[in-house]
Each structure stands twice: as structure tokens, then as C-alpha cells.
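Kinase
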Amino acid sequence: MLSGNICFHIDDFVDVVFWVYISHNNKQSERWRKLRNIVQWTPFFQTYKKQRYPWIQLAGHQGNFKAGPDQGTILKKLCPQEERCFKLLMKDILRPFVPEYKGQVTCEDGELYLQLQDLLSDFDSPCVMDCKIGVRTYLEEELAKAKEKTKLRKDMYEKMIQVDPKAPTEEEHRSKGVTKPRYMIWRETISSTSTLGFRIDGVKKADGTSSKDFKTTKTREQILEAFQDFTNSFPNAVPRYLERLKNIRATLIESHFFKTHELIGSSLLFVHDKRKASIWMIDFAKTVPVPDNVTIDHNSVWKVGNHEDGYLIGINNLISIFESLTKDDNGNIDQCYSNLSLDKNVRRDSLAT
């Protein structure tokens, strides 16, 4: 826990909770038909009428979420900074692009939770993808605190060599340890966070299969392939995602909240089924006000002290890649997408790693 009510686990750089619902009953009663619309996989989950059903947590922080008291809601453990953001966002033009905040709830155990809109309640067997947006997932304050304690960490060295045995230097191999700042910076360079300003954190398909093996998915080509796989058999999802991304970008540019905050560790949640598709901004525990003497444009290269988050770099590259999905092998707009107005000058950022 940092000062200023910023909530995070300093050793965890993927602040995402993935859930999968497993049914052990093949008979579809009326209640089970209703259950199809309940969250099956997402940072937002709930049960039906407080009944218990088997859930499997794939990754994340156990105990952060509970079923909401009302249908179509979930409870997320209170983080004061995130609650502050939601209160501001409910008054900002970004409100249509974030979960609706419905206030605090005190549970039987005395814990405080935020009651939020369940984003998957209107979808039937949805496909879900979580993309972490920005060129870094740690606050400058986190990095500064980590630099205060430069002892070698064996656990972080082991995490590093699991991904890339060649990543540590000869000295780090000899000592079998790396410092926390070294690990924090390296962690961002192995994925598309550093190259495209966003990374895929996890995907769940309509058939229930899921994957979070995207740690080293880095290049534009790799991301394009992952998006093609995610939207396969759902051709209507691509143009709807593209339109939603452009609407989000246009609104961000005009948003007072966006102009005055750096968004760190925040995600875009992509959701589609056979009928519809949409995207929401989620996870604001590390979204903090920009210092009074600092102005950021969310589109410049980050250097320590300038507080740039690269959020628009990520959005622009997402738009560019989804536009690529609308084109045929010759680079022409596919006939089924011919009525779309596509950007011709989307910035294709590639940040130095």
C-alpha cells in the first residue's frame, strides 16, 4: 500500500482477475437459461440470487470480488483511490465508457466494497479480452520507492529467467538476483506494452476456453494474429470494436478527467457475442491526478518525471490494428466493412525498449 490511498500489490504488475464459470449440470432449466447471462469470465463476477456455484480463479487477487446485492451488479473490494475516480467519472463525459458506480456496500464481514455495473449481464456466452493500456503499468512513485531498496531479489530473478533465461546480465546470473527497479522496467519490455502502448492480459472464448499466456506477445503481427483469433467466427465484432475505440478516443481528448489524470494499470475490456460487441474502461486503482505543475498529452514518450502514461499511444495502435482486420490480403477494405470511415493517418508508435 502506498501513501495517498493508492491500492496495489507492489510485486504484482498484472492487476487483473480472471474467472470462469463451470456448470456440472447438463439439464437447462429456466434458472440455468437465466444463468447464461451471468458473468462467466471477467474482472467483474457475480452469482445468481446469492446461490453458490463453482468458480475457478485463473489469475489475480482472491477475495476482491463478491456477488452484488442487485441483479446486474458486482462488488469490488474498496480502494479509496479507485472510488474517487469513479465518483469523478460519473460526472465526466467518459461516463458511458466505464462501469456505472452505484455506491459503497458494507458486507457481513464488515468489509467495504464498491457496487459496480456487471458489464457482461446483457451478453450471451460472451468472448472477453482484457487489454492493459499504456506504456507502463507502474506509477513513478512505485519506481522511486523501489529504488530506495536496491537489494537483490531472488524471486524476481527466477521470474525473469522463466520468461527469458538470457535476460539477466552475467553479474545477475552469478548473484542469482535482480533489483526491483531492474525487474519492473524489464517486465514492460517483454510485451507489447513497450512497443505498442498496450498488451493483452487475457482472453476467454465463447466455448469456455481461456488463455493468459501473452507475456511475450510483443509485435504488431503477433497482436494482429491474437485479435484475429479472438474475433474469429464473429465478423460483426470487428467494426463495432473499431467504432467504439474511435468514440473512446474522441471522448478522451475532450475529457477533463483524462486531461488531469495519469492512467496506470488501467484496462480496456472487450466483450462480444453473436449479437453485439462493446468496450469499457476498467481498473482505476492506480489512476492518479497529475501534479499541479505538470501537463501531459498521453501520447509522448515517457521519461521519469514527466508522468506520461502513453494511453493514447495504445488507443491509436489498437485502432490501427483493428482497421487492419477490416482489409483483405491486397490491403483493400473488405466489402463487408466498406461503409466504415477508416483512419488513414493513425500514428503507429514503436517505443524503444
